[in-house]
Amino acid sequence: GYNLFALGPQGIGRHTAILSYLRRKAADAPAPDDWVYVHNFKSAHHPVAMRLPAGVAVRFHDAMDELIEELRIAIPSLFQSDEYREKIRAIDTEFEEEQEDAFDKLRSKAEAESATILRTPMGFALAPTHDGQVIKPEVFNMLPAAQRTAIESNIAELQKELAAVLERLPLLEKRRRDQVQQLNAELTGTVVEASIKGIADRFSEIDAIQKRLSEVRSDIVEHAEIFLPQKDAQSAGPFPLSSTDQAKDPRFNRYRVNVMVANDRDGDQKGAPLVSEDHPTLANLVGRVEHIAQFGALITDFTMIRPGALHRANGGYLLIDAQKILSEPFSWAALKRALRGSNVTIVSAAEQLSLASTISLEPEPIPLQVKVVLIGERILYYLLSTLDPDFAELFKVEVDFDDELPRSPDNIDLY
Fold this sequence. Notes:
Elements: E1 4-7, H1 14-27, E2 34-38, E3 48-52, H2 57-79, H3 82-112, E4 115-120, E5 123-130, E6 133-134, H4 137-141, H5 145-202, H6 207-222, H7 243-246, E7 257-261, E8 274-277, H8 282-286, E9 288-289, E10 292-294, E11 297-299, E12 305-306, H9 309-313, E13 317-321, H10 322-327, H11 331-341, E14 343-344, H12 349-352, E15 366-367, E16 371-376, H13 378-387, H14 391-394, E17 397-400, H15 409-414
Parallel strand pairs: 1-16, 1-17, 8-13, 13-16
Antiparallel strand pairs: 2-3, 2-7, 4-5, 5-6, 9-12, 10-11, 14-15
């Protein structure tokens, strides 16, 4: 609640004095933690916020991009090897043999009962035979009634067995798919484990990254097929992907890292952030989720989340002109909500007005620790103190700039 409101007439040097003071104070403070968003494997519309030590976010982002590029080459090579093809061929052969064996037994029984199995556009069917030839309907209708009844009875029994065989085929196919998936997981796991181990060793002391890498490892093994060349890749857009752009394929976004706040990039302590937001719209204040048009619809994912001034100032100081934030729809309420809840929740004006009908995200809120300095006229301070019950609770510190000073030679020279 100990945020500041600097009040006084315009032109007296409020911004200059406060910035000068806060620059010195921020320089002596440690750089705050970094923040990134990553894909939520359990719920894609709720991206996960990760807190990382200062200076780690960009390195982790680059490491995950390197992992994607490495696996984009290694996994397809693995699935094109002779060893893999031989194992797949063995699984397919076993499935085909079981399928043929079931039909052969039924076919032999049908032949013994003077019937045969036919493949039609509608599926499989049974038909009576004589001397190995299918009996035509007009010939069948001329047979004695007792003979027709016996044939129909035999066909009905065989039809039940045919239905049982056809019901078993999906189970065989599912077992084949499970065997292929298990084989893919075993082969992929070896490659993925080796690639991820290198990243895990580089960030061995950061538990959040170790947990994330474990989740990524499991998901890649489960969805290894997204790294394989797509047969319809050319239909994904109006232009074919170049070899460079293939690494930016949105299919791989689930493993990327979206850096929201990166402090201490060069490894030296640069102090706490000091942000002056000159245009405090709702999006500029709390961030936004961007969208792209694809096939006539607007889509998005966590890589399109953009930070706001509160994100950039987190762990430091934020300067805002009071009149500007009060004139922007929803901004004042969003600032108070962030300070009261001590977190930044990304919302859009369109959603608040129920104007948005596109697919959007609900990013996990990021914890907020910031000192806000509002700068405005005295009348704004007194109006807020009188009309807004939250104001006195959130802005407890009054910084009053006097509009008079002694007329001395030194002050005249300074003026």
